């Protein structure tokens, strides 16, 4: 292991020992049709090709939630494309109804890209908008939509959607309400190291100011079926190096996550020696964002037993957490009986508009 990896692992173990966190979650992607044309995206479909995508109604989404009523999930993760019908009123009502149906289910939903569009359409400032989302039942924010903050790169790969500054402003307003969120970076495309450092510096400065971020999640660019297919992907060595540097640089972030459906189960295991202490959750084959971009995990689902075994095989302690890192169960000495797994019983439909 490199000296960088050794130092990152030292920091990881100083913060968390061998604890490696996961949760039982599922994703809902209301639509993959989007107003924006990000060059790195393999997931979204333009409005002129919306027949190739899906657009869920409020009832469609609630039906997906209901399908998990007998499952021990703790979190629903909601994020998708940007369309006019998914506005402040739509998501406010959705959050209220999810909480009315299952009050214990943590709603982690939407990125600043979606909120910026919704609030602008409603002629609403960020502070007012985020307060309304909290009152409706939003529990935390995921870290998506950050991509690369530096305008030199952001304008090339994600022009038209919220700026890096606006992304940070929306998270800051959320933190002012006493709420928590995550942060990401999309790396390994046309950016240089200086752009990654600039990105992390802005996050570290906001974290010093608010303390509202929980987890940093480096997201690897995948080049299948998008406008940047000519850009080669990073190597596993570079991925692990990036995790290690992230752990060292972002000293004021408690957690570093490797999103296993994006990098494969094996690389996720390796990452646990390069600063990573979290590998996300069971997911249950409910996300298509990375499988459509060519990730190794074309059917991204793992049972609790799978996750526990994956973590134990590299000498770490599997800890099931809730979204806010409260410990649900320590699986270090747990013995599974029979087929003790977490499985869904349905396939996500592509519903009509």
Can you give me a brief rundown of this structure?
With 353 residues, the protein is α/β, with parallel strands linked by helices. The chain has twelve helices and 13 strands.
Describe this structure in words.
- This protein has 353 residues and is an alpha/beta fold.
- It has one domain (3-330): Aldolase class I (TIM Barrel, Alpha-Beta Barrel), CATH 3.20.20.
- The protein has helices spanning 3-16, 58-66, 88-101, 112-121, 126-136, 151-157, 164-176, 193-210, 236-249, 260-263, 265-271, 304-312; strands at residues 19-23, 25-28, 33-34, 45-46, 75-78, 106-109, 140-141, 180-187, 213-220, 255-256, 278-281, 317-321, 327-330.
- The longest helix has 18 residues, at 193-210.
- The protein is globular and about 50 Å long.
- The relative contact order is 0.16.
List the helices and strands and how they pair.
Elements: H1 3-16, E1 19-23, E2 25-28, E3 33-34, E4 45-46, H2 58-66, E5 75-78, H3 88-101, E6 106-109, H4 112-121, H5 126-136, E7 140-141, H6 151-157, H7 164-176, E8 180-187, H8 193-210, E9 213-220, H9 236-249, E10 255-256, H10 260-263, H11 265-271, E11 278-281, H12 304-312, E12 317-321, E13 327-330
Parallel strand pairs: 1-11, 1-12, 2-5, 3-4, 5-6, 7-8, 8-9, 9-10
Antiparallel strand pairs: 12-13
Helix pairs in contact: 1-9, 2-3, 3-5, 4-7, 5-7, 7-8
Number of strands: 13
Please tell me the overall pLDDT. Answer: 87
CATH topology: TIM Barrel
Structural class: alpha/beta
CATH superfamily: Aldolase class I
**Which CATH top level class fits?**
Alpha Beta
Task: Kindly report the spatial arrangement of strands forming the biggest sheet.
Answer: 11-1-12-13
* Share of residues in strands: 15-25%
Question: Low-confidence parts, pLDDT < 50 over ≥5 residues?
Answer: 285-295, 339-353
Distance between the termini: 51 Å
Question: Architecture in CATH?
Answer: Alpha-Beta Barrel
Please bin the fraction of helical residues. 25-40%
Q: What string gives the helices and strands in order? A: HEEEEHEHEHHEHHEHEHEHHEHEE
User: How many domains?
Assistant: 1
Largest sheet at a glance?
Answer: 4 strands, mixed
Tell me the Rg in angstroms. Answer: 19 Å
Give the overall silhouette: globular
The number of distinct helices, counting runs of at least 4 residues, comes to 12
């Amino acid at each position: 292991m490199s000296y960088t990896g050794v130092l990152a692992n030292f920091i990881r173990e100083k913060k968390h020992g061998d604890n490696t966190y996961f949760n039982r979650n599922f994703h809902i992607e209301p639509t993959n049709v989007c107003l924006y044309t990000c060059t790195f995206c393999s997931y979204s479909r333009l409005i002129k090709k919306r027949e190739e995508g899906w657009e869920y109604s409020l009832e469609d989404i609630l039906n997906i939630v209901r399908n998990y009523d007998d499952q021990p999930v703790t979190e629903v993760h909601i994020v998708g494309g940007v369309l006019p019908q998914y506005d402040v009123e739509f998501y406010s009502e959705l959050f209220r109804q999810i909480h009315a149906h299952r009050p214990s289910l943590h709603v982690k939903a939407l990125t600043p890209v979606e909120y910026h569009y919704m609030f602008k359409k409603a002629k609403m400032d960020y502070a007012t908008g985020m307060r309304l989302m909290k009152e409706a039942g939003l529990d935390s924010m995921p870290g998506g939509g950050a991509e690369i903050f530096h305008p030199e790169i952001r304008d090339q790969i994600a022009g038209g959607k919220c700026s890096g500054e606006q992304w940070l402003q929306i998270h800051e307003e959320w933190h002012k309400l006493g709420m928590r969120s995550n942060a990401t970076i999309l790396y390994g495309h046309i950016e240089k190291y200086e752009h990654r450092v600039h990105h992390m510096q802005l996050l570290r400065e906001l974290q010093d100011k608010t303390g509202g971020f929980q987890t940093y999640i480096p997201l690897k660019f995948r080049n299948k079926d998008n406008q940047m297919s000519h850009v080669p992907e990073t190597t596993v060595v570079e991925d692990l190096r990036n995790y290690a540097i992230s752990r060292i640089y972002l000293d004021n972030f408690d957690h570093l996550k490797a999103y296993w459906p994006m990098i494969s189960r094996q690389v996720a295991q390796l990452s646990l020696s390069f600063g990573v202490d979290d590998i996300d959750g069971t997911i249950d084959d409910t996300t298509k964002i990375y499988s459509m971009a060519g990730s190794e995990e074309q059917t991204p689902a793992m049972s609790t037993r799978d996750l526990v075994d994956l973590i134990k095989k590299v000498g770490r302690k599997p800890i099931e957490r809730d979204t806010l890192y409260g410990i649900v169960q320590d699986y270090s000495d747990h013995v599974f009986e029979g087929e003790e797994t977490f499985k869904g019983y349905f396939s996500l439909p592509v519903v009509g508009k």
